[in-house]
Structure formats: structure tokens, C-alpha cells
Design brief:
The protein is mainly alpha-helical and about 120 residues long. It has helices spanning about 20-50, 60-70, 90-110.
Length: about 120
């Protein structure tokens, strides 16, 4: 008795509601999460350095402060606290910036993957 095997292929057609193919959306999501991860990591370094009162004369400390200053500028002055380098400070603005940037990354990824189910993301 001979057995017959039948191959089936599913072809997904491009709908008008799709803005990007599935591969592109997952790539965009990865890139967005990578960029936001780098930003949040730099902000975490800044938070720890400010908390420990790191001296700005140090090259690494100066680099971190220089990179992150534009990122926290929108949040400076929320609590009428003045930025002081070399003094131990709990910089709440940096924590808020970390949360906001992580949330923005999540929103962007959700918008890019709007038409996909959770299993596909």
C-alpha cells in the first residue's frame, strides 16, 4: 500500500492595514528596545554617580554627565532642586527620565506592532 504525502504552504497576503512586513516590525522593535536600553543604562550610571557624589573631574564621570545632561534637561527643575556635581545627591529627575524613556520605547514598539498579536512580537 502506497502512502501519499501532501505538502501545504500558507501564503500570507499583504493587507492594506499592514504598514510593515512582520520581519521589519520585529527588527524595528529590537532597535527601539536596544536604543532605549542604552539610554536607560547611561541614566542609571548617572544616577549612581550622582548618588555617590562622583567628582566631575574624572574622565568617565564627566563623559556620563555630558552624555546624559541633554536627556534629563526636560526634567530638571521639576522639584526645584539644583544640580550639584561632587556632592552626594538623590537625583529624582534622573529616575523619572528613566521611567519616561522606557515608557516611550514601549509605546513606540506597541504602535509599530499594532496589527500583530502578542505571540508574533
Amino acid at each position: 500500500m502506497a502512502e501519499v504525502y501532501r505538502e501545504t504552504h500558507t501564503i500570507r497576503q499583504h493587507n492594506d492595514t499592514d504598514t510593515l512586513p512582520e520581519e521589519s516590525t520585529s527588527t524595528v522593535a529590537r532597535v527601539v528596545y536596544l536604543i532605549s536600553g542604552v539610554i536607560v543604562t547611561f541614566l542609571a550610571f548617572r544616577f549612581v554617580l550622582m548618588l555617590l557624589g562622583a567628582n566631575r573631574v574624572n574622565g568617565f564621570t564627566n563623559l556620563i554627565y555630558g552624555i546624559t545632561q541633554p536627556l534629563i534637561t526636560p526634567f530638571v527643575g521639576m522639584f526645584n532642586l539644583k544640580t550639584q556635581y561632587g556632592v552626594s545627591k538623590f537625583e529624582l529627575e534622573t529616575l523619572i527620565a528613566m521611567v519616561v524613556y522606557a515608557f516611550l520605547a514601549w509605546v513606540i514598539v506597541r504602535l509599530v506592532t499594532l496589527n500583530r498579536t502578542d505571540e508574533e512580537v
